[in-house]
């Protein structure tokens, strides 16, 4: 239920615009997500200087709605609300409606996500925030049913007409309060402080950890790769049984249950239940790149061949199913299939399985993937690997080798049959996510598969430096219509890391030079005396600078840049860069102390700097 941040009523009537009526500007957009809203009756505008200027001229709230192509609930809210003529009329008359592809404007989306989390206690997509004409968020929410959404629009426009001046003031005050920055004036690092943060992180980790089912929390389950990577590093330094048990439990649950695609490889974005059984079916490039690295690292730390094979399988999935015809890797595969069914591409009915599998293959598949009985999902069974070959062999009174052979036959046949279905692909190439994929491929090469991944990594590196980088600046996205959107801090930081990983592999002078250029550009563009900037000229005034950046689904961009820069100093000394690193690591300690779990990557950098 929507909870308004400010509820007051004064008397102040805003004039309706005398300008020409707004028109939907998204038809034919190169972003698949924006283009799908091109026929909505809502007069969607794009997030830019002209749109914000119009809001100021007309003294209207900006309604900023952020989502992405593979998001199921984004499609639902479009169908229920944005294609509703009555709701569209309210948005068009009283607000400046702005549709944002979060994958284009990642920094804007990140700040709005943080605002909604701090004011509502939760966040997600579709993300909907009302922003003052001056650029300060006023109130935000996620999915809202159409009846509630219509009531919200009516109530909010009444409040705005009655007291826009007061609401503007409150929005600015709230933004100042929620996004305070405390930058260090001089280096303030110590081994004692770093160890204290490490212990605080471990304590909060065990508070949030689900030691029965793996992962964190008791509701939805996300991979939380940044935290798991740091825990893996801590385990290597301080091998404790409790930490080992939690890591192996989490890795096993993610690999064997519903989060992973057991036919085609790769992982879904998250599970909607605490037991990892039912996923939200979109597949994102960044998740799979990070999880490939995690499993390859875990395979090495725990000497576990299964983890290593899952890492390779995930890389193979990325190169096969997320490839584009223009080079680079696609952003995502949709949760919704071409028939409008969430997860439909991945689900199975008994009648179909009986047609494509032999009796023995079906018997093994039923036991291994829990396909017997009524499905947990409306449109069919989702594969969850619940049994081991030895147990199933005993149940079927067959030898283990035969069971494994039957299972592999079933997997191949089902994968071949599934390939005839269609799942929409968002083929735009995002710099940050492709850079993560580059790092993952280098990890695969170092794990023993140079012949398999070297050429793919080389082509990906070249695509990033030839298509995204023009010698002066980085484009966040390259799509069918060329370069799109200015790159953000995460694009530059992850690219610097990917290039460093590649340069350490090739030891090429040109590759090291590219690393140096991107590192220097990143610090120059995004690190100021007022803190880290997520993007240049973002227009949103909330959180213009941050003392340190938290981990999200991807590791903190500031921590990644600090780590990359520190490694680069081993190749080439740079005292100015060293000082910047020390100052950056000395800032934001109050935030880290308050919520260490969400600053795991920064804590790891503080530890490694000692």
Written description of the protein model:
The protein is of the alpha+beta class. It has four domains: 32-178, Glutaredoxin, CATH 3.40.30; 184-208 and 488-610, no CATH class; 210-336 and 429-483, Glycosyltransferase, CATH 1.50.10.10; 344-423, no CATH class. The chain is 52% helix and 8% strand. The strands form five sheets. The protein has a four-stranded mixed beta sheet. Strands 7-8-9 form a three-stranded antiparallel beta sheet. A hairpin with a 2-residue loop joins strand 13 (527-528) and strand 14. Helix 10 (285-301) runs antiparallel to helix 11 (305-321) and helix 13 (359-368) crosses helix 15. The longest helix is centred in the first third of the chain and has 33 residues, at 146-178. Mean pLDDT is 91; it is low at 1-18.
- Reported by name, the CATH topology of the largest domain is Glycosyltransferase
Rg, nearest Å? 25 Å
Major sheet: 4 strands, mixed
Q: For the largest beta sheet, what order do the strands appear in spatially?
A: 2-1-3-4
Shape: globular
Average of per-residue pLDDT values: 91
Instruction: Give the CA-CA distance, first to last residue.
Output: 47 Å
CATH architecture of the largest domain: Alpha/alpha barrel
List the helices and strands and how they pair.
Blueprint: H1 32-35, H2 49-58, E1 61-67, H3 72-82, H4 85-94, E2 95-101, H5 106-120, E3 127-131, E4 137-141, H6 146-178, H7 191-208, H8 225-237, H9 241-256, E5 270-271, E6 279-280, E7 283-284, H10 285-301, H11 305-321, E8 332-333, H12 350-356, H13 359-368, H14 389-396, H15 400-418, E9 425-426, E10 429-430, H16 431-446, H17 450-468, E11 475-479, E12 482-486, H18 489-506, H19 509-526, E13 527-528, E14 531-532, H20 557-569, H21 575-585, H22 589-594, H23 600-608
Parallel strand pairs: 1-2
Antiparallel strand pairs: 1-3, 3-4, 5-6, 7-8, 8-9, 10-11, 11-12, 13-14
Helix pairs in contact: 4-6, 7-23, 8-10, 10-11, 10-16, 11-16, 13-15, 14-15, 16-17, 16-18, 17-18, 18-19, 18-20, 19-20, 20-21
